[in-house]
Amino acid sequence: xxxxxxxxxxxxxxxxxxxxxxxxxxxxxxxxxxxxxxxxxxxxxxxxxxxxxxxxxxxxxxxxxxxxxxxxxxxxx
Length: 77
Hints:
Elements: H1 11-28, H2 39-50, H3 56-76
């Protein structure tokens, strides 16, 4: 799945950053507490990686911020 999206050798970084972000968002109630991958969050993590962010903690924090901002924007619209 991740290799198909052009992540290649950075699968571990994406996986760990996604896990950190998803755990936080589940605990905050922003996403459901299931084992199903949240595609929107995964896309955000991948886009950030493609734009040059490779530190898993910064990647997770930026993904959380973008996810929450998008969710707020959808709530307002």
